[in-house]
Design goal:
Elements: E1 4-6, H1 9-18, E2 26-28, H2 41-51, E3 58-63, H3 67-70, H4 72-79, E4 86-91, H5 97-106, E5 113-117, H6 123-128, E6 131-134, H7 143-150, E7 155-158, E8 176-178
């Protein structure tokens, strides 16, 4: 027997709709992560220093290589309505980040949005941050959400229509799920 493996039910449904011959041969196997040690205040401070993030502000983290599809536009708009004690740290490799730096400046966000680029060890960003924001328009699973939760971070994520991992979360218990 041959099977097709998907990382989430929404992806499995999409595959089945696109390739009807896979019906009955689809298996969903969700990814997992090793649980890191809980982040201490000392570890968080050191991570912020290493990433050149402010020590005296709350840090929201956004991780994506395709920021437009993962919802950075919505986050930047929301940042204009938050207090100045919030900083957004943006991690990932994208040619779009130069444009987003200009957008951030035009929105008056100045030094409140920091672009970290591609990080060799993303766990440092999770250790430094207070919350992960992932208001994606399309993500079959969202490994970054699982990684953040493994680091015991609260997450804000799109609902299961847009983000596969949301089908496994409980709103206001495991995450704040945007519908």
């Amino acid at each position: 027997n041959r099977f097709v493996v998907a990382v989430s039910k929404p992806l499995s449904d999409t595959i089945e709709k696109s390739y009807p011959s896979t019906k009955g041969r689809l298996k969903t196997i969700t990814p997992g992560v090793d649980l890191p040690e809980a982040t201490s205040a000392i570890t968080s401070r050191q991570a912020r220093l290493n990433l050149k993030l402010p020590l005296d502000r709350r840090i929201a983290l956004f991780v994506a290589n395709d920021p437009r599809r993962k919802g950075l536009d919505a986050i930047l708009q929301a940042m204009t309505k938050t207090s100045d004690d919030w900083t957004l740290a943006v991690a990932g490799a994208s040619h779009q980040y130069e444009t987003y730096q200009q957008v951030s400046a035009s929105l008056g966000l100045g030094g409140r949005v920091l672009f970290l680029g591609s990080l060799q060890d993303i766990s440092k960003a999770y250790q430094a941050a207070d919350i992960l924001l992932h208001p994606t328009w399309e993500d079959t699973f969202a490994m970054v959400v699982l990684e953040a939760m493994a680091h015991r971070m609260p997450v804000v994520v799109s609902d299961a229509h847009y983000c596969g991992i949301s089908e496994m979360l409980t709103h206001q218990r495991a995450a704040l799920i945007l519908s």
